[in-house]
Design brief:
The complex is a heterodimer of chains A (about 450) and B (about 290). By secondary structure, chain A is of the alpha/beta class. Chain A folds into two domains: about 30-165 and about 335-375, D-Maltodextrin-Binding Protein, domain 2, CATH 3.40.190.10; about 165-330 and about 390-440, Periplasmic binding protein-like II (D-Maltodextrin-Binding Protein, domain 2), CATH 3.40.190.10. In chain A, about 45% of the residues lie in helices and about 15% in strands. Chain A has helices at about 1-35, 40-45, 75-85, 95-110, 120-130, 150-155, 175-180, 190-200, 215-230, 235-240, 250-265, 270, 280-285, 300-305, 345-355, 355-365, 385-390, 405-420, 425-440, and strands at about 55-60, 85-95, 115-120, 155, 160, 160-165, 165-175, 205-210, 290-295, 310-315, 325-330, 335, 395-400. In chain A, a hairpin with a 2-residue loop joins β4 and β5. In chain A, α18 (about 405-420) packs antiparallel against α19 (about 425-440). Chain B has one domain: MetI-like (MetI-like fold, Orthogonal Bundle). Chain B is about 75% helix and about 0% strand. Chain B has helices at about 5-35, 50-55, 60-90, 95-110, 115-125, 130-135, 150-180, 180-190, 195-205, 210-225, 225-230, 245-255, 260-290. Chain B is built from 13 helices and no strands. The chains are: A alpha/beta (about 450), B mainly alpha (about 290).
Chain lengths: ~450, ~290
């Protein structure tokens, strides 16, 4: 009896609860399904253009402009806002490299990223192919691009980005330490470089650091050497390599020179493979621990902040006696417009603003970079005097990272160099392996 | 009470099923479809059939990364659980110390893997703390370029993994120890079983459920190891620490049209994790049932 009463009450409660619960559960599933099916409107709201006196919201992503790497972005953005009061510029710093791709690429896929995106040649190639970037070919600045830069901002006949800089990856020299052994200038040939390093060693100064734990420095050094030893005589080598007319054998003298640094006792590659080029190298250089090291010119601002003022960035002195060195350039930061933007005019206005060399000059000054525009304005800075001299003399090689030196190929090269430096393979094996792996 | 009315049952199941479909099945199906294309950056690409899988079959980088990942997982699973078990065994009767020790055990796990990787990178540096200590105690011959030498780099990373998660395994084993029937342990003691014999014949068999959980979790975690090799070595030197997850990462986010191929490698990893974990879990469950 008791159980019947209990059972009856329970059934009543269950009946009372059942309908609302069923409805609630059904509503929740429907809600989930609708959420899944509908696109978010937040980005539309954020970047939508408003009528009347209201400003157009323009969202921009960039990996420059943080506290640690300000790059004068804030100043340029202020100048843009002053010139375009009708636009509400919302600049967001997004960490560089992998973190940037992880954030932006899925957003692009979802059609909800920023209106203007900081890019580089590799990102332009990938994202333009995927249809994520707007064609900017009709922009007025297209005609003023330097010829060498055009392939890095284009896919086919279309232009998808406005470049901001040509940035060298070269030899950083501590001029105070060089002065201690009587040198007033960065060496310009390999014999002079060896002589300088010998003198520095004799004075108890570590001549050279090439930390290579991440694999980047090894590749930079080899390419910096090849900029002079290979590309000076054959500037069309990349295209010939793509066409199968030449082989990686042409890099042998550059490889020889890289390995000669160890044979000469200036470097111990096995030790360098345990040192982080990103976390340690610039700080060690700024602290005066080494006279020379190799990095991108973008590190200059950090070195200055760390307290070293008297240094120069020069092309790697890779040539024989009597030669002049060539720059190894990376066509660096660019601006692209999201193909999905709803404020295309405002986005193009931002890119156009940067394409004016006068507006971008503060950025070049911070980056210690050169202008990618015909007749562009270059910073007059003692730090980059050797780089600028080579630039103005036309001794420049551009990292072919949209053709054969792709990200994957770059990884193969880095790994191959590490194997060579470890003694796992000899130069012949390295060259034949690279020839097989790097040729598209 | 389970309702016999199918509408009610379906309505209650629907939210969970909807979430599962959205979060698990949809990405999985989408990934499988993407692997059949040449998508360069996640966008819909051209259908290329099984071309990516054919490439995968002949990709020596993937093969060596797979073997390396499995070797890494074996070392981590064995060491992590051995150390975890030893810690739990050492402290399970020390009630007063347990609370503090439990926190101490779990502390490394509370650090972000990225932060741990940076910390250990500094410790492993040629002039870092580890080599400095070795030199200070006269063990100069043991100093190494830990992360720059292919013979030590992967195992140096494995050591960090073990350091980070051995305490977690210890906590699970400790919970297992707390559930051991005291009558059985007391009876064993009365019968003269002590030390190794008690561990071997009483504790070890009774800890089977904890072992199953620990081995399964550590196996899954170590097969999917990513942050440690990414930050500490970036897969180097000379590819000696490139695990399967790093290959996926490099393909998916490395650009130049290899997104879809990266997804194909990710599907391989999924199969490897599911197959190995299922086998190990089945073997350990069977052992539990026998005991």
């Amino acid at each position: 009896m008791r159980s019947t009463i209990h059972g009856g009450a329970s059934a009543q409660i269950t009946r009372r609860l059942r309908r609302p619960s069923v409805v609630a559960a059904g509503a929740l599933s429907l809600g989930l399904a609708l959420t899944a099916c509908s696109g978010s409107t937040a980005a539309d709201d954020a970047s939508g253009s408003a009528g009347g006196d209201e400003q157009t919201v323009l969202k921009v992503y960039g990996w420059k402009g943080s506290d640690t790497e300000p790059a004068n972005i804030a100043g340029i953005n202020e100048a843009f806002s002053a010139a375009h009061p009708e636009i509400d510029l919302q600049y967001e710093f997004v960490p560089a490299n992998d973190a940037y791709i992880q954030r932006v690429q899925p957003e692009l896929l979802a059609g909800e990223s920023a209106d203007v995106l900081m890019t580089d040649p590799t990102k332009v190639a990938d994202w333009a192919t995927a249809g994520y970037l707007m064609d900017l070919s009709d922009s007025a600045w297209v005609d003023t691009l330097q010829d060498e830069v055009v392939p890095f901002v284009s896919q086919g006949e279309m232009v998808y980005a406005a470049p901001t800089e040509l940035i060298s990856i070269g030899l950083f020299a501590n001029m105070d330490l060089l002065a201690e052994v009587g040198l007033a200038e960065v060496p310009t040939t390999f014999p002079e470089f060896e002589e300088a390093m010998t003198a520095l060693e004799a004075a108890g100064i570590t001549p050279l650091a090439l930390p290579n734990k991440a694999g980047n420095t090894g590749s930079w050094v080899l390419q910096a050497i090849a900029a002079t030893r290979l590309y000076q005589d054959n500037p069309d080598w990349d295209q010939q390599f793509l066409d199968g007319e030449v082989s990686f054998e042409d890099w042998r003298s550059s490889v020889d020179q890289m390995m000669a640094l160890e044979e000469g006792g200036f470097i111990d590659y096995k030790t360098e493979l345990g040192v982080d080029e990103w976390a340690n190298a610039a700080f060690d250089f700024a602290a005066g621990k080494t006279a020379f090291f190799v990095q991108g010119a973008w590190s200059a601002a950090g070195i200055l902040d760390a307290g070293l003022e008297n240094f120069q960035i020069a092309p790697w002195p890779g040539g024989d006696a009597g030669s002049d060195p060539s720059n190894n350039y990376f066509v660096g930061v660019m601006w692209s417009v999201n193909a999905n933007t709803k404020v295309a005019d405002a986005a193009k206005a931002y890119v156009d603003f940067w394409a004016d060399p006068e507006n971008a000059l503060p950025f070049l000054e911070s980056e210690r970079a050169q202008s990618p525009w015909q007749g562009g304005v270059n910073p007059d800075d003692a730090t980059t005097a050797p780089t600028l001299a080579a630039f103005e003399a036309g001794r420049n090689r551009f990292l072919p990272n949209t053709t054969w030196m792709t990200w994957d190929a770059g990884k193969s090269l880095e790994s191959g160099i590490q194997s060579l430096q470890l003694g796992q393979i000899d130069e012949d094996e390295f060259i034949s392996t690279m020839d097989a792996q790097l040729r598209p | 009470m389970i309702s016999r009315r199918p509408v009610t049952a379906i309505a209650f199941m629907a939210p969970a099923v909807a979430i599962y479909l959205l979060v698990v099945i949809y990405p999985l199906v989408n990934s499988a479809l993407l692997s059949l294309t040449d998508s360069p950056a996640g966008n819909p690409g051209n259908f290329i059939g099984l071309e990516n899988f054919a490439t995968l079959a002949g990709d020596s980088q993937v093969t060596s990364a797979l073997y390396r990942t499995i070797a890494y997982a074996v070392v981590v699973v064995v060491l992590q659980n051995a150390i975890g078990l030893a810690l739990a065994r050492a402290f399970f009767r020390r009630m007063r110390a347990q609370r503090g020790l439990s926190v101490a055990f779990l502390l490394p796990m509370l650090i972000s893997p990225l932060m741990a990787a940076f910390i250990w990178s500094a410790l492993y540096a040629p002039n870092g703390a580890i080599n400095t200590v070795l030199e200070a105690v006269g063990l100069d011959s043991l100093t190494r370029i830990w992360l720059g030498d292919p013979s030590t780099a992967l195992w140096s990373i494995a050591a960090v993994n073990v350091w980070m998660f051995a305490g977690y395994s210890a906590a699970i084993f400790l919970a297992g120890y707390m559930n051991l029937p005291s009558e059985t342990l007391d009876a064993a003691r009365v019968d003269g079983a002590d030390g190794w014999r008690r561990f071997r014949w009483i504790e070890w068999p009774l800890l089977a459920p904890s072992l199953t959980v620990n081995v399964t979790l550590s196996l899954i975690g170590s097969l999917k190891v990513f942050e440690f090799p990414l930050v500490m070595t970036n897969g180097g030197p000379a590819g000696s620490t490139t695990t399967l997850t790093l290959v996926i990462y490099q393909k998916v986010f490395g650009g130049r049209g290899s997104f879809a191929y990266g997804i194909t490698v990710a599907l391989l990893l999924l199969v490897v994790v599911v197959v190995l974990t299922s086998i190990v879990s089945a073997v350990l469950r069977r052992r539990e049932e026998r005991i």
